[in-house]
Design a protein that fits this description.
By secondary structure, this protein is of the alpha+beta class. The protein folds into two domains: about 110 residues, 2-Layer Sandwich (Phosphorylase Kinase, domain 1), CATH 3.30.200; about 120 residues, ATP-grasp fold, B domain (D-amino Acid Aminotransferase, Chain A, domain 1). The protein contains six helices and 14 strands. Strands 8, 9, 10, 11, 12, 13 and 14 form a seven-stranded antiparallel beta sheet that branches. A five-stranded antiparallel beta sheet has the order 1-2-3-7-6, with helices on one face. The chain has a two-stranded antiparallel ribbon with strand order 4-5. Helix 1 packs parallel to helix 6. The two termini are about 25 Å apart. The C terminus is likely disordered. Bound molecules: uridine-5'-diphosphate. The site of uridine-5'-diphosphate has 14 residues, from strand 9, helix 2, strand 12 and strand 14. Uridine-5'-diphosphate binds next to strand 9, helix 2, strand 12 and strand 14. Keywords: ATP-binding, Ligase, Nucleotide-binding, Purine biosynthesis. It is an enzyme of class 6 (ligase).
Length: about 250
């Protein structure tokens, strides 16, 4: 599809275009999937449509409980209007159960409940493979200050409580997730808001009864169809694309 707007940035799963008004952007969700720092790549039909819908659903829910975020409105199957932010160069990870890198690092079996939600940070840098960084580094290098970090933890824990409850209600355990945070200015006053996306690309989601994985680990670990997994999440939440010409009809019934 030929872009109608000026491209601002292209990432692994999304493209950002200039928005219709100053301070806005259009976020386009691609079907591309990457894992292991983009060493594994594929195009997965329908993923972008599902993630556009799912991110809309979660961001709208967050707005409704007063958690500030970049989402303004969905424009079409693959695009949403968002607030332009200055991204804090951190991946903010919240963990409720051990999985992935924390399991490896600490020798914890995947699925082990953690004593409390753990918030950790990776420095957003593809060339370095997004290394885990302590608060000390973040403050010393000026990526965020202590006040920002306090606000980020508070946002991350509110997102965690909201998402955990929403997923629990549809029989899904929220193992962990990643969010990104953006800065916006009202005059001289800076605020931090939730940005980027919230979708099964950036969460670990396990069926409560069977522990079946319904997230990007299906792709990372070759566990079956990613579109089927994401469609199942969307179906349970009642979030299904209308007018879905780009995803297989059997997946949206
Ligand atoms: N995550 C992500 N993008 C990244 C790294 C991690 O969305 O670049 C998400 C990942 O999907 C999982 C959580 O953050 O839900 C924790 O990931 P972890 O640190 O265990 O890393 P991984 O095992 O994915 O390398």
């Amino acid at each position: 599809m030929a872009p109608r707007r000026k491209k601002i940035y292209e990432g692994k799963a999304k493209v950002l275009y200039e928005g219709p008004e100053p301070g806005t952007l259009v976020q386009y969700f691609k079907d591309d999937a990457t894992a292991f720092n983009a060493q594994k790549k594929a195009t997965i039909e329908g993923k972008g449509v599902l993630n556009n819908r799912l991110s809309e659903y979660f961001m709208t829910g967050l707005t409704n409980i007063g958690v500030p975020n970049h989402f303004i409105r969905r424009l079409n199957m693959r695009e949403q209007l968002i607030r332009q932010v200055e991204i804090v160069p951190l991946e903010v990870i919240v963990r409720n159960f051990a999985a992935g890198s924390i399991s490896k690092r600490l020798g914890l079996e995947e699925g082990t409940p953690l004593p409390r939600p753990i918030v950790e940070y990776s420095y957003k840098n593809d060339a370095l493979g997004d290394p885990l960084v302590p608060e000390e580094y973040i403050i010393a290098f000026g990526w965020a200050n202590q006040q920002d970090l306090d606000d980020i933890v508070s946002l991350a824990l509110r997102v965690n409580d909201f998402l955990s409850g929403v997923f629990y209600g549809v029989g899904i355990k929220l193992i962990d997730f990643k969010i990104e945070i953006g800065r916006v200015w009202d005059g001289d006053f800076m605020r931090l808001i939730v940005a980027d996306e919230i979708s099964p690309d950036s969460c670990r989601l396990w069926d409560i009864k069977t522990n079946q994985k319904l997230d990007k680990d299906v792709f990372r670990r070759d566990l079956g169809s990613l579109t089927d997994a994401y469609s199942e999440v969307a179906r349970r939440l009642g979030v299904l694309p209308t007018n879905a010409t780009n995803i297989k009809p059997t997946l949206i019934n």
